[in-house]
Write a structure and sequence with these properties.
Helix content is 21%, strand content 34%. A hairpin with an 8-residue loop joins β3 and β4. The chain is elongated. The chain starts with 6 loop residues before the first helix and ends with a strand. The model has no long low-confidence stretch (mean pLDDT 87).
Amino acid sequence: MSNNLNLATDFAATNALIVTVDNVVDAIRGVDVTGLALGIANSRAVVDANAVILADLHDTDIPAIATLTDKERSLMGLGVYPGFSEDFDKVADAADPSATNWTVTENGGGTVNVRNNTTDVAGFARGYSGIVVGEDGLCSTRDKRVFALKNGVTEIHLAARLRFLWNFATGENCGIGFMANEIVPGSVTDLVAAANHVVSVVVHDNLPMSFMSNGANVEETDLSAYVAGDTWLDLEIILRAASADYWINGTLRNQKTTFMADSVFQLMFGGTCFNAGDFEYIDIEKLHVWCV
């Protein structure tokens, strides 16, 4: 058998092809790489220009991302005891406040309802006493929204725009405040009881007063110099472990440090009739509760 393989000839042909490929590659390098380098240079210039634009935007047009305050976090539903806001404008006129936050107790002719068809304010809730002794209109967050100075919480805030109306009747006519969540709301008297761990403002025997109790003792202060009947005002109560502040229309009017309430709290407002023929009520336009 003969062998027709000629290695010398085959290697020569291969070398010729290699030279040809090298020439083609050199030709490509000579023509295209120069253009590629120019393209890269142009691209780099565009990137640099965009970087300058982004730097300008960062410095001038895009503000720093703000950190949420503790109040904002609480009102957004965050934290150990989430707060909430209520404007009483998201239910029909004459309906009960939202059952998401509130439980309504109506005894006899007492009522709690939202009033939206009014030229007075955009919308408000009224806790009305009725005119027969023992009638009540009460509204509470019991077992729906609770608040406590526990698990790292150092302050509980209640801020509300409201007004009281009373007819010179004795007893606990109308009011708002915190009390122990275990108490089933029965009358406005619950908001002044020593046993109930109350932090409240209540019209008592014709006088608007602040109250604080620790389960055994109660402290009360006359606020009639700052609260007029049938007059809108801004109330804020700030509860801490060692003190409670009562602000009216932006001014601190009372601070309590003696019989400090300590409980898991519900919020309640409403009116109770103690004198036949007399009616009392509380109107609340805006309400915010938060923990920090």
